[in-house]
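Please fill in the sequence for the structure shown.

STRUCTURE ENCODING:
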């Protein structure tokens, strides 16, 4: 069994990769930073020496690199049973104050990367009538908030992509799930002094993904919103 997780050198992506490795999946991961990616590869391999871990440095904001990553997967990692579109950038700020070009850059990483990679890997899933695509959305995909800015726009767009994909793939037996976690203990929250236990753990998201994947063939979780027990952080 093979899984592809983008943006998997740390945080939620890495937690998902480790979970799937423990469950016996070969995993292909990517990230921009080759140093953190190499460490993630070693950590994932350590939890299950019997699986293959393919780690490729990729800037998911660049279409040509996304396509090259997909080509590598198709030649060495086929078929793909789980695709997790997790790569993303979080840059808050008011729309009228954000620098010119930020929306385009965030759209490329947060939305277009999922669009291009999914399109490249979808033919095999449809032919096999098997596969599960997880799109890592956000509570920001549903709720507008101050300083959401360009980031929030991209997360609304990713949820729209995911919903449309779900409708298109119903008849092909390929599942699509939108996972939308709220504040989670990742690099995006570095520097934020939250009380202990206030943020969710990346492993919470990984465990929820696994629960959704292991449902019966005739069942699919379309959308899930996760929040800390005490709610969002304002």
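FILLED IN BY: designer on duty
SEQUENCE:
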């Amino acid at each position: 069994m093979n899984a592809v997780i983008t943006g998997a050198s740390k945080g939620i992506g890495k937690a998902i990769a480790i979970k799937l490795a423990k469950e016996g999946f070969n995993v292909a991961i990517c990230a921009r930073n080759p140093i953190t990616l190499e460490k993630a590869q070693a950590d994932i391999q350590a939890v299950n020496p019997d699986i293959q871990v393919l780690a490729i440095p990729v800037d998911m904001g660049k279409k040509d690199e996304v396509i090259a990553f997909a080509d590598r997967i198709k030649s060495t990692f086929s078929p793909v049973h789980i695709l997790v579109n997790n790569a993303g950038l979080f840059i808050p700020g008011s729309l009228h104050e954000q620098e010119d070009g930020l929306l385009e850059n965030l759209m490329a990483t947060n939305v277009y990367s999922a669009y291009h990679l999914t399109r490249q890997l979808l033919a095999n899933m449809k032919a096999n009538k098997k596969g599960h695509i997880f799109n890592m959305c956000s509570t920001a995909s549903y709720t507008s908030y101050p300083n959401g800015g360009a980031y929030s726009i991209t997360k609304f767009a990713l949820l729209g992509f995911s919903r449309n994909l779900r409708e298109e793939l119903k008849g092909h037996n390929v599942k699509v799930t939108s996972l939308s976690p709220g504040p989670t203990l990742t690099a995006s929250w570095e520097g934020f002094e939250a009380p202990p236990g206030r943020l969710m753990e990346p492993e919470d998201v990984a465990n929820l993904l696994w629960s959704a994947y292991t449902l019966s063939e005739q069942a699919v979780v379309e959308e899930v919103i996760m929040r800390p027990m005490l709610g969002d952080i304002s």
